[in-house]
Amino acid sequence: MSDDTGLDEVLDTQERRRADRRDFLRYAGGFTVAAAGAALVSACGGDDDDDGGSSSPTPTPTPTPTTSATSGISDADILNFLLQIEYLQAQFYALATTGSGIASTLLTGTGTQGSVTGGAKVTFSDDVVGQMAREIAQDQLAHVEFMRSALGTSAVAQPAIDLSVSATSAFSVVARAAGIIGTGETFNPYASDENFLLAAFLFEDLGVSAYRGAATLIKSSTLLQVASGIMSTEAYHAAMVRTTLYTKGSTNPDLITRADGLSNARDGYDGSSDLDQGISNRGDASNIVPTNDDGLVLGRSFKQTLNVLFLSAAAADKGGFFPNGVNGAVKTSDAN
């Protein structure tokens, strides 16, 4: 058995603190945040014995974790990989909406802790875009808090993140690959509503596909519910961003061209030709939701996701938005 009392208290405190937010992790049938967190501690390495003997309770997920037979990595490793994407998104939205990053107490953990370079508050000209950005920022912060609490001492630290706007910054590199800017130019996602939406488009679609790919490797049914719940939230975020870009693109077609360019750049990095989709029309229909012929959203593997995050079609262990690499068991991409 595992002693989840301490974790329940932490999650209960978080729940009270977030009373004014949407309770994004409640599911039909009474699946609650506290229940998910307590079960996740067990899934990530609880102290349950299969031989019928009693064991001393442990408050942290330190014993042998559940492992996916397909990937050879544990469910905790998978969650830690996704946590680092949440760090990236949470920092971007926090900086864009407030001018400050997330609390330093949420950045510690195993591995090398890094700082965020760049970031600035956006002066939104469209109040709807500003409200949407603040909503997403709240959700991303909640994801980081929840995942760190569920992982306990197994949580990885935030690695170094590049959100700057120089000519060699991650944003400028991917914008150049997308044909948005030319050689030596810079892309500033904090300069306008449109630039902010393009950066959000880059991150949100990637997040959805990363969760979709990870879901196929998760062995714990409880963790699968948690991951699918967060993936659903990310999908809502992506749809919000894609819809807004598409709507604004009706009067500014160049915005759709730029979004499509970012989609093509993601495909170029991960080596696929049709995994990613822009927001251009599909015949006489819009393309708000990117799906295959069966109406299903496609997923990226861990390595494909890292190709995009590192902004490299070659095998790499660092670069792009994570200039010093990531923490945890999953940290390298493949050559495409």
Automatic annotation (TrEMBL):
PROSITE patterns: TAT. Coiled coil: none annotated. It comes from the Bacteria. InterPro entries: Pigment-catalase-like, TAT_signal. Pfam families: Ferritin_2 (PF13668). Residues 44-71 are annotated as: Disordered. PANTHER family: DESICCATION-LIKE PROTEIN, OS05G0151100 PROTEIN. This is Ferritin-like domain-containing protein.
